[in-house]
Design goal:
Strand order of the largest sheet: 3-2-5
Distance between the termini: 183 Å
Number of strands: 8
CATH topology of the largest domain: Tetrahydropterin Synthase, Chain A
Strand content: 15-25%
Order of helices and strands: HEEEEEEEHHHHEHHH
Structural class: alpha+beta
Helix content: 55-70%
Largest sheet: 3 strands, antiparallel
């Protein structure tokens, strides 16, 4: 009987101890409730004690969580519609406020955060053009949105926004075709402008090349004629100098060359006066 009572007491102690002691991990945050009312808004990691069946401990993940915001349609500064798919990285920084505002439900916290992201994106996109939203100022827009959200989420929801990012930006289906057609038309116009500009440059380059070729040919012809004239003048001077030294020999040599050229063909017939000066070197070796 005594053993049975001892075992029962030990079992009771174990049950009381298991309901009195609890451990909070480094990756967790917790609050303590007493009959449903918040009595301790932040419990540090480690081993702690509570009153069994009176106190209740709610634990929450203290790591960075992800909230995927549903795709929404927004209007840019030019009133152009965009469909934006975004997500946010967040974590709990004030466990007590988080429990008060969401009753400790992370799904509720995600829904509240998604609505705030939606409102923030509407304001940020509405102040920018389509080009700025898509490429030009996307990073600045996300940083501004994160800063704006953090001004209120810590106090209202007990959470901190680490980062907000856009996963995808699309044009609505009903305007996508018309936008693509305008883009194609614009690109074709730019291509035609580039081709026209290229053709204009090509015409100018060809005209300049033809002009330079004409100038080069004219200068080459001028230089050739000048050299040819200088050569003829030099040859004439040489002939004149040689002729002046022995005119009779020069005349005799020219006559021999003339005879050679004249009588080189057997079919040639000449009708000349036998007393002509043309034959004076054939009749006598000396001039008269």
């Amino acid at each position: 009987m005594k053993n049975f009572i001892a075992v029962g007491l030990i079992f009771l102690v174990v049950i009381i101890a298991s309901n009195s002691l609890f451990v909070i991990k480094e990756t967790e945050r917790a609050v303590m409730l007493q009959f449903g009312e918040l009595v301790q808004d932040s419990i540090d990691p480690g081993l702690h004690v509570k009153i069994p069946w009176v106190n209740n401990v709610r634990k929450f993940d203290a790591r960075i969580l992800t909230e995927d915001a549903p795709r929404r349609r927004y209007l840019t500064l030019e009133q152009k519609a965009l469909e934006v798919d975004s997500y946010a990285k967040w974590r709990i920084v004030d466990v007590g406020q988080f429990y008060i505002s969401t009753r400790g439900n992370t799904t509720t916290a995600g829904s509240l955060l998604a609505e705030r992201i939606n409102d923030g994106l509407r304001d940020q996109i509405g102040d920018r053009t389509l080009a700025e939203v898509v490429a030009g100022e996307r990073d600045q827009m996300m940083l501004a949105l994160t800063a704006d959200l953090n001004e209120t989420t810590a106090a209202d929801l007990g959470i901190e926004i680490i980062d907000v990012r856009v996963k995808r930006i699309d044009l609505p289906e009903d305007v996508r075709s018309s936008v693509y057609e305008r883009m194609i038309t614009e690109r074709n116009r730019e291509a035609q402008e580039l081709r026209s500009f290229g053709e204009e440059l090509a015409i100018g380059i060809r005209a300049d090349a033809d002009r330079q070729a004409t100038i080069f040919r004219a200068e080459a012809y001028r230089d050739a004629e000048q050299l040819r004239g200088e050569g003829d003048a030099t040859a004439t001077a040489i002939y004149a100098d040689a002729y002046s030294k022995d005119p009779e020999f020069y005349a005799f040599t020219r006559s021999l060359n003339s005879y050679r050229e004249t009588f080189s063909s057997k079919g040639d017939v000449l009708l000349l006066d036998p007393d002509s000066d043309y034959f004076k070197y054939l009749k006598s070796g000396i001039s008269r």
